[in-house]
Amino acid sequence: MSSIPPIWSSLTPEEHEFQYNPQAAVPDYQDYRVAREPANAAALGGLARHADIAYGDHPLRTLDIYPAAGGAPAPVHVFLHGGYWRAQDKANFAFVAGALVPHGVTTVVANYELCPAATLDEVAASAIAAMRWVVGNIADHGGDPGRISLSGHSAGAHLGAEIVAHDWAGEGISAPLAGATLISGIFDPTPTMATSVNADLHLTEAIVARRNVEVRPPALASAVALFAGGREPWQWIDQTYRYAHHLHRHGLDPAVHVLPGRNHFDILDEYLLPQSLLLSTILGHAGVGA
Which part of the chain is the BD-FAE-like domain (predicted)? Predict the structure, then answer.
């Protein structure tokens, strides 16, 4: 019996690049980070921060903790940045803490290993190691290890899905995640192999088979919310729906939201809008009100 050809099989090389390389679809992508810089600088300068805490020996296995004020252990939120597994730094995402800390949520913004120096296997392993460190150590920083949620954008959404799929029970860690908000994610790395990005990623069929979270069952019964931008290329949006179908097949009930007018890069502005559905979803997973 022949298999159904993948959705991207009929694309020209130019179409494939547009659909699966967000920078090709949004040529002014840098402008959106620049526009968020005042909010990011305000968070870096105005919040308490424990910076560059090591969660492993690699120089990129570091994280920043922005503790919430108050005496009681606070809910914890871990953010994993995008950059197609090859770029970006936690310092550019302090604005996430700026949105969450005022609501009493201790926020962790993590770096992780990057391609091409690391393989995608090593990138995923470092994200899982960051979560493992948070579970084991966040109580020392005023966080409640029983109330951890996460969000991730783009490649960070894939890494969040890796955390959802990881066998935590096999490590003796019980249900470390209260909820996951995965934004504009790439969940099957296979189509990336035919983009220019693979010059940095060095993906192989064996690597993408191991790192495809559309075929690996979730190991956590966490609340999952999936977001994408309505102005993203359709086949990029389709990854979110495919991953949602995958979670449904394994008994989860993910929420799926396509936000009109948002592209792959300005969707992060939703963290900065006090009444946004994205922010209220994250706060709901944390167990606090908007």
Answer: 63-161
